[in-house]
Write the C-alpha cells for this entry.
Amino acid sequence: MGLAIAYSAWKFYESTGEIGYLVEEGAELIIQIARFVASLATHDDTTDRYDIAGVMGPDEFHDGYPDAPGEGLRNNAYTNVMAAWVMLRAVDVVNVLSPRYADQMWNRIRLRPGEVKQWRLIGSRLRVPFHADGVISQFEGYERLKEFDWAGYRARYGAIGRLDLILAAEGDTS
C-alpha cells in the first residue's frame, strides 16, 4: 500500500527541509499513495465515517476473518491511522508547494479539483476501531476472535518464538 514509503518521504523532507526533494520526488510519492488509499475508503452514511476493507495488517498474519480467510480485514487500525496520516500529509504537501511550485508540480501530478478537500475529509473521518474499554482494536472484529490456544501450542512445539512460521505451516491464518 506504500504507507510506510509515504511516511519516510515526508520525514525525509521534514528533517532536511529540502524543498527540491519534495518537488522532484517526495510530493508525488505522498500524493499518489494518498490517492490510492482514498480510493479504498468507502463512506458509511449512518455514522459519517469512512471505512477501508479487504486489507491485511502489518503483522502479515491476519489476512481475513475465520469465516473468510484470505479476504482481508475491515478497518485495520495501523492501515487506517496511517492512511489518515498520509492523506493529511498530502494536504500539507499541496500547502507547502503552493503557489510557488504549483505549475511545476500540478502539471506533472495533475491535481484534480476537490482532491485536497477529499483527502482532508477522509483523513479526518476514517474509522479506527476500539474495544469497549477504550483500547484501540487491531482491526474491526478482533475482540470476537477465539482466544489463541497458547498452552496447546507450547505443549506441541515448545518454543513458539516464530509462531508465524508454525501457524503458516499449519495453514492457520485466523
About this structure: The chain has a mean pLDDT of 91. The helical segments are 3-16, 19-40, 77-97, 102-109, 115-125, 150-157, 163-170. The longest strand covers residues 49-55. Residues 19-40 form the longest helix (22 residues).
